[in-house]
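Two proteins were folded this term; both appear here.
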Amino acid sequence: MEINNFVVRRAVASDAAAVAEVWLRSFTAALPSVRRAHTDDQVRSWFREVVVPGQETWVATVEGSAVGMMVLDGEDLEQLYLDPAWQGQGIGGRLVDLAKQHRPAGLALWTFQVNESARRFYERHGFVAAECTDGHRNEEREPDIRYVWRPGKQES
């Protein structure tokens, strides 16, 4: 797919439903073995009532349709999800670059250990594994891994 009209911007209230749908499609496709802690409707409500109005939420759109989303919270890259149909097109890299621009002192994030494609993606973008857990601190109870990025580290 060729990206013609690709835009990354801060999400507004009217984006909440589309951002939630990107999250749901991406999570379902990337993590079929991970037990979701919340129903689809709870996820939609969370994006509508908490995430988009109260957190630094970014949306990537192509020709007006949401294809990716990212949430920054302090130095944490809290959420980064792409519609499965749009993965591999450079959108995720553009979102990570934006996160680095907005957090030049460094970033940290968590991903599930079973999400090997996400782990490869973050490692390609200069993130280094810093901690692995058995998942006792996340709602899904899924083993996870914390990655960190600090400026000045060698990036490929």
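Next, the second protein.
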Amino acid sequence: MTQGMVLVADDDVDIKDLVTFKLENAGYSVVAVSDGDEALRQVRELQPDLAVLDVMMPGLSGLDVLREIRTDEGLAGTKVILLTARARDVDVDAGFSTGADDYLTKPFSPRELVHRVGALIGRG
């Protein structure tokens, strides 16, 4: 039984693979993409429970994708975690003011990410 569907969008293959591996091991169904344009397409098509978005990606940035998700009533229930190397206060503020549910900076703890996903999706 899967715990929910998570979209992972990161142009860094190692990070994308690590996040996908950890979430799948925790029982989530994961769809992984490597750019913002594809992330937005997949979010609209699959309507995942949660999206983990890198902020800096080719095409649309994670913030652009987040902005699109937040303006689409059909995606109102989609939770979003921004996963990024941008750790300055101004970047964190921009992420939350754009509508992120959570913000995790790289380098990050995969275990912490799994816990935060679980908290947002509402499992245990």
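The longest helix spans residues 13-25. The chain has one domain: 5-121. These notes refer to the second protein only.
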